[in-house]
């Protein structure tokens, strides 16, 4: 089968479209014929092997799986011996192990039936980013009607879902994005926009009950200044601590400070689960959220899709079709 793969960790120059063996699903897995795959920042971490601490799971010297990608939407080809609830021919979406390929395998508990009103391209844009935003706004961090929410990185994959979810919960959302994305984030429901190239978030006249930071390049001290006295900071990503621990450095500092503050400083480490995919399926089918697809590439141009992610500041998600 064809797949976007690499051998050693490195830059996008090491990625290539190549022929590899079709994966064989384990007993608790499903083999999926991929129709579309999402491209999100986690692919860059898989590609570079950074932060280095992630190699404990990904492979110390080289990736355990050379194929990149997680987000997938497609059709079930075969099911493992212990899988129930799925059968060949079912249309599904979720998280697979190496989705930038003609086939991928996925654990059954990381899949759900594809939303009936979404195309394969839209469904492939939903799993990882949608689950991250959904899990971020869970529990006590779920915005309440009338609260003010700040979404940093609002035009990206996670941010675009976060804006829609916060608005659906009745919050007033201010979106932080780059130049030219104001109309896009307003179309998602944001009532206020901060262009980070000309303003800092501290320029806002408001303080926020919930701040979701998907960009990860602002210090905790600055983020705390825009929170209400008992506000909640949610950190999804971040690269300020260098190659070894990446965004974990800032998140660990937040955890260390939080017990001594009235504010809550927490991180968002999303895990794709079938129950959350089913919740997103319902939200998509009733029109609460709509995947924003920035650009679609064929699998033959999958490397170009990843380069666009690196440099293009996409609005929403990039998708590769197979």
From TrEMBL:
InterPro entries documented for this protein: ADH-like_N, ER, GroES-like_sf, NAD(P)-bd_dom_sf, YIM1/Zinc_Alcohol_DH_Fams
GO MF term set: oxidoreductase activity
Coiled coil: none
Family annotation (Gene3D superfamilies): Medium-chain alcohol dehydrogenases, catalytic domain, NAD(P)-binding Rossmann-like Domain
Limits of the Enoyl reductase (ER) domain: 10-320
Protein name, entry field: NAD(P)-dependent alcohol dehydrogenase
């Amino acid at each position: 089968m064809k797949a976007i793969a690499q051998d050693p960790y490195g830059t996008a120059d090491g990625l290539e479209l190549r022929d590899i063996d079709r994966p064989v699903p384990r007993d608790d897995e499903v083999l999926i014929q991929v129709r579309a795959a999402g491209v999100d920042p986690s692919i860059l971490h898989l590609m570079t092997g950074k932060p280095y601490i992630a190699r404990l799971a990904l492979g110390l010297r080289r990736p355990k799986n050379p194929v990149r990608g997680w987000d997938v939407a497609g059709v079930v080809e075969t099911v493992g011996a212990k899988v129930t609830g799925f059968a060949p021919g079912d249309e599904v979406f979720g998280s697979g192990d190496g989705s930038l390929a003609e086939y991928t395998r996925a654990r059954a508990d990381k899949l759900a039936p594809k939303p009936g009103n979404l195309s394969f391209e839209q469904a492939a844009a939903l799993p990882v980013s949608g689950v991250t935003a959904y899990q971020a706004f869970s529990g006590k961090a779920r915005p309440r009607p009338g609260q003010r929410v700040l979404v940093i990185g609002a035009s990206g994959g996670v941010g675009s879902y976060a804006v829609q979810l916060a608005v659906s919960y009745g919050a007033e959302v201010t979106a932080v994005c780059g130049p030219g994305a104001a109309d896009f984030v307003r179309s998602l429901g944001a009532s206020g926009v901060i262009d980070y190239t000309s303003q800092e978030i501290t320029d806002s006249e408001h303080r926020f009950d919930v701040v979701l930071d998907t960009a990860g390049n602002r210090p905790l001290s600055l983020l705390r200044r825009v929170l209400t006295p008992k506000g909640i900071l949610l950190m999804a990503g971040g690269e300020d601590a260098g190659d070894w621990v990446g965004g974990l450095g800032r998140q660990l500092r937040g955890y260390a400070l939080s017990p001594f503050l009235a504010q809550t400083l927490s991180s968002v480490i999303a895990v794709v689960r079938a129950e959350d995919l089913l919740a997103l399926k319902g939200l998509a089918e009733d029109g609460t959220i709509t995947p924003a697809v920035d650009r679609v590439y064929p699998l033959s141009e999958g490397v170009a899709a990843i380069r666009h992610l690196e440099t293009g500041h996409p609005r929403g998600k990039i998708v590769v079709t197979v």
